[in-house]
Amino acid sequence: MTSARHLTVHVYPWLKAGQMPAPKRILILVVILAVAGAGAWFGLLRYGATPADPGARNEQVLVVAPGMGINAVATLLHRAGIIHHPDLFRLFARTARGRHVIKAGEYRVSAAMPPSDILDRLFSGDVVLYRVTIPEGFAIDQIAGAVAQAGLATSEAFAAAARDSGLAKEMGIPADTLEGYLFPETYYFPATATPRKMATAMVDRFNAVFTDEWKTRATQQGFSVHQIVTLASIIEKETAHPDERPVIASVFHNRLAKRMRLESDPTVIYGIPDFDGNITRAHLRQETPYNTYRIRGLPPGPIASPGKESLYAALFPAQTGYLYFVAKNDGTHHFSATLAEHNRAVQTYQLGRRRKK
């Protein structure tokens, strides 16, 4: 009968020698390390997929400053209770997500988000955007007020950017300011957007709307783009009724063709510093570059930002014989081809209204 000791020596002679062959030792070590590494890797992936608090409902705003790295961000998130184990967060970011740069800005994050989603948001630059709506007919100071109300910049800072002659030249605008070219629309800007970047985005939008076909049309009409924008801004301020814009445009085109003064109250108002809302005869007699009761032709530049419809009306006016219009006090206007008819309309809609009051 063979003893157990004899069997052991016979079957595993390398144990008696107290040595394991090097290839086998390496293989076992590799297996052990692989098993441990796989466990650590799956544990790290499980961490990345597990929210710190799945029941959390409130989002917080994380402010990432320019140049802030993953170490600082992990610390901020941990202090805010958004993640557990900041060291694991850093390790997960560097291994499972590779080498990425965190973009500066404001981010909405929640403890109900797994770390993987938080990192995706940070790496993609999915920042909080602030809505700014610029109505048609707003001038620079009004647009600056809208930007300030959105919390993106002070009105003074934005107005300064919009009146920067260097920026106007850079944007190809033949004027010292961006007046008229800050296209009225709804914009979404991150908190990191500077006044200059916001103003540039508005001008870029204008350039997208004012197509090459429109530029050709302006030339065919005998106007520069700047003159069309100026005329469109006056049309914009004269009426809020879309149907009237082409007719208002026809009046101004007809008057320009006859070398008549435009006599537009909004241009007078634009040239009055600190206008109090009450236009007087003295204002109409005041000599300013924008007083179209005193100058012939168009003023030197736009008086507000016209919308697409007003730009179109300036380029494609209605074909009429009208030379005059007067407000009917219901938001619309009465149009006349002769001065006599216009005077009667003034008696009816303006002087008659005053007598009734």
TrEMBL record:
Gene Ontology MF: a single term: lytic endotransglycosylase activity
GO BP terms, alphabetized: cell wall organization; peptidoglycan biosynthetic process
Annotated membrane topology: Single-pass membrane protein
Transmembrane portions of the chain: 26-44
Cellular-component GO terms for this entry: plasma membrane
CDD domains per record: MltG_like (cd08010)
Site positions per UniProt: Important for catalytic activity: 238
Family, as annotated: Belongs to the transglycosylase MltG family.
Protein name: Endolytic murein transglycosylase
Source species of the chain: Desulfosudis oleivorans (strain DSM 6200 / JCM 39069 / Hxd3)
Origin organism lineage: Bacteria, Pseudomonadati, Thermodesulfobacteriota, Desulfobacteria, Desulfobacterales
